[in-house]
Amino acid sequence: xxxxxxxxxxxxxxxxxxxxxxxxxxxxxxxxxxxxxxxxxxxxxxxxxxxxxxxxxxxxxxxxxxxxxxxxxxxxxxxxxxxxxxxxxxxxxxxxxxxxxxxxxxxxxxxxxxxxxxxxxxxxxxxxxxxxxxxxxxxxxxxxxxxxxxxxxxxxxxxxxxxxxxxxxxxxxxxxxxxxxxxxxxxxxxxxxxxxxxxxxxxxxxxxxxxxxxxxxxxxxxxxxxxxxxxxxxxxxxxxxxxxxxxxxxxxxxxxxxxxxxxxxxxxxxxxxxxxxxxxxxxxxxxxxxxxxxxxxxxxxxxxxxxxxxxxxxxxxxxxxxxxxxxxxxxxxxxxxxxxxxxxxxxxxxxxxxxxxxxxxxxxxxxxxxxxxxxxxxxxxxxxxxxxxxxxxxxxxxxxxxxxx
Amino acid sequence: xxxxxxxxxxxxxxxxxxxxxxxxxxxxxxxxxxxxxxxxxxxxxxxxxxxxxxxxxxxxxxxxxxxxxxxxxxxxxxxxxxxxxxxxxxxxxxxxxxxxxxxxxxxxxxxxxxxxxxxxxxxxxxxxxxxxxxxxxxxxxxxxxxxxxxxxxxxxxxxxxxxxxxxxxxxxxxxxxxxxxxxxxxxxxxxxxxxxxxxxxxxxxxxxxxxxxxxxxxxxxxxxxxxxxxxx
Lengths: 405, 232
Hints:
Structural class of chain B: alpha/beta
Largest sheet of chain A: 6 strands, mixed, barrel
Shape of chain B: globular
Largest sheet of chain B: 6 strands, mixed
Oligomer: heterodimer
Order of helices and strands of chain B: HEEEEHEEHEHHHEHEHEE
């Protein structure tokens, strides 16, 4: 008895009870569709997070001041005033395998132009800033090294600030007042939109760090140093060299803790992808459970079918069917149920993924792996849960089977 | 037993016995049956229910194994074979005709007749050709694509005979083949059997409780209490 004969016998038997077959398949259909959809959403979310972090630059390292203890109260990272512009310069000069270093000092201020004004954050940095923080210039230019040395009164507006202060456009060349200091707008940043954490990244203005320190805040402390390593592989050594250099510069004794903190994006990236990996594992586990429930449904209906067709089995045995013929017949039937269910489930899952991405606006990726895995899994379900009923059928006594009413 | 007897005997049982366990008690359904059927014979088996004739037929049909004794079919001892080996013998050497026809309801006449050849591994085209020929030989040329439910009892039993013939068996075992039929259909069926026996030399053993049916056969074996009580 060859494969096509087996398949046609199985198909005929299933079509005989089309409604029942469909209901039996439903468990597998839902299970597979759930696997496909959850994997697609999980993969999509992971890719979205990865892309977002990629935009920050995977070589990025950030140095922030350490926490401060005031009367036993920890004020948290960044509260301490420990980093200076000279630290940034020293890092740039001595730590190897560095592509660029951009110190950053921050304040908040009301920015005024004519009768328009906007409260925003003011970033002070150096010409390395756009490259290190992955910004591009939409109009005009960024400030240069000379302007930093002179503490020039020039600024680059974020997109949100530019549209609010100059609704008609044409910001470049105009003047804005920040804390009573007039700054000439030399450029506008390209829009980045919201960050992964919901903050409007375009709501800021950038000035030379020296201008910020001397003209706006009068502080010599800076709030962070952003370092871009030459390659992802260099990140670890840059982190440790930076750490050693800063401890030296800050005259820390061996026992003293760091008064700063060095973080790298790769760590954050890892943590984020780990989280979403666990999420999709959980989803897949839930889906696997529903597949198993579907398998039990198949086993149940196959047992019913074997009982109903005992006489048929007896006739087949009488005319010469061997144990394996009967076993194979019912096994193929169970597998046909689960595989057809699997195919329908894959289609339904892809449809559901597509609709989800369309309606919710999520990035959804249906991977070939998830299709292959869930299909193979559903075929296995058919074999595993079909085996017991098929085995029972094949072990029937032909005489009793023939006598069965 | 002489060489000639071995050659001609298609069925030869020696002290064939079958016991069933009913809980703690062993019930002897068959108790030392020695029967020889020569090739080309047309034999009927009679007896009251519980006489052991059904058990005997099950053993002859290789559907069951004896508790003790031997059964030689076409000269080969088949009393100790595995169930798969028995299936192969049923497929190759024995055609069954049952009282209740036992056709598969979802299949057409041709498909039913093809069934034994399906398990024998005959190629599809050859299968179909032989099935059609077998149906034609029992006068069902015009019922090839009908399902059992669309046929009369007599026609269904003729499909069953065609199915038994399709595997070109050495013998046909019939179990009350006319039990569910009216007398006209019964005569039709018995006529077919007699033709198969006389023209094609097929050995036929049929169980019956009707003397009318037994009258068609050349020899009658009567069972009582698990033994052969006599021959006529």
